[in-house]
Amino acid sequence: MAEPGEGAIDLRSDTVTRPDRAMRAAMERAEVADNVIDTDPTMAALERRIAVLLGMPAGLWTPSGTMANLVALTVHLRRGDRFLAPRDVHILADELGGVAWLAGGMPEPMPHDGGPGRPSPSAVRSACPPTGAAYNELRTTLLCLENTHNAAGGAVTSPDEHERLVVAARDRGLLVHLDGARLWNAAVALGVAPSALTTGVDSVQVCLSKGLGAPVGSVLAGDEEFIAAGRRVRQMLGGGVRQGGVLAAAGLVALDRIDELAEDHGKARTLASGLARLGWVVNRPETNIVLATVPSVPVMLTKLARLGILASEIAGQVRFVTHRDITHSEIEDVLDRISAGIAVTEPVQEIDFALEG
User: How does residue 4 score in pLDDT terms, banded at 50, 70 and 90?
Assistant: First the structure.
């Protein structure tokens, strides 16, 4: 079975990207200070720049998106509060229950009745009757959204759809947190500024270590009071790094590469279109994630690995994620290997993937 570093083409995630020479050089020359005692200047510059990009007053660097989400919900929730979130979002499925254990929140998964990866505004309103809860009923105080929605195949929520959900949340007195780990991908796919996708939210986190190629880091953004409270929670969780400018410098370089995500989206369309021609049942990728429905995910992952193709499982499907460290020619190589090595008996899927788009 092929392993990373042995000639395998790694499509497990866009987190497998590695900092290139320019990014490493920026890390080496970064101006630094103790970011707990004082303020690391490079870290502060990164936080300010991302806050502006997101249309928020302030930002807070964290080592991971999981920590950023946990910080946000710890600040937003009181113990025992119920929060709403689309089914299979990262906060519910991939963060080991930290929100329930540490933030004390009671999650309420919602169906994707408003489109891939999102509930409808009417479902948000229905989940929170306008009369409010009786004293012995759960108190619902927060709506969590995810853009793009990972488990829905990198599905994008448009500015209009986002705004309708925020309005529905406000109608019921809810705060709104946006997990924007791949918000950069959504903005590029839609051709809008990232701030167009954060309108009305109380907090948002964005990741630097996925498609943008930084080795570490996410930034949580919100108003000054929220970020001050979040800084204390980050410290409690062990996220108060010292000379963090070394890592922040990589993040600043990464931000210069947002537009390059369009290349990853094109690779995903090429992969999905090729798989469909080979008889695979796949989604129409909006960003850089391709989901394939197969009879047995573990069996298929083993077959792929034997061909030197590394993929992963999510929501009961095979997931391929394109990224900056994979070339267009390697995507064609993946399709050639699958064509030669895996027989698919399903009928060919007739989908126009708009490869020119």
Answer: low
Helix axes 245-255, 21-28, angle to 10 degrees: 140
Q: Are 278 and 290 in contact (CB under 8 A)?
A: no
Cβ 83 vs Cβ 139: under 8 Å = no
Does this model's pTM top 0.85? My answer is yes
Across residues 181-204, what is the average pLDDT?
Answer: 98
Residue 174: DSSP 8-state: -
Q: Rounded mean pLDDT of 230-237?
A: 96
The CA distance from 256 to 233, in Å, is 29
Q: What is the bridge-based pairing of β-strands 58-62 and 218-222?
A: antiparallel
For Cα atoms 166, 236, 204, give the angle at the middle one, nearest 5 degrees.
20
Q: How far apart are CA 159 and CA 43, in angstroms?
A: 29
Among the listed residues 226, 111, 123, the one whose alpha carbon sits nearest the alpha carbon of residue 168: 123
Per the CB < 8 A criterion, the answer to whether 259 and 56 are in contact is: no
**Residues 173-188: tens digit of each pLDDT:** 999 999 999 999 999 9
Half-sphere exposure of 41 (CA within 13 A, CB side): 5
Q: How far apart are CA 349 and CA 284, in angstroms?
A: 11
Is 80 exceeded by the pLDDT of residue 28?
yes
| Backbone torsion region of residue 153, taken as left when φ is above 0, otherwise alpha when ψ lies between -120 and 50, otherwise beta | left
* Both structure tokens of 23: 């990014």
CA–CA separation, 298 and 276 (whole Å): 20
Residue 295: CB atoms within 10 A of its CB come to: 8
Q: Predicted confidence band at 351 (pLDDT cuts at 50, 70, 90)?
A: low
Three-state secondary structure call for residue 155: strand
And the tokens for 107? 């999650």
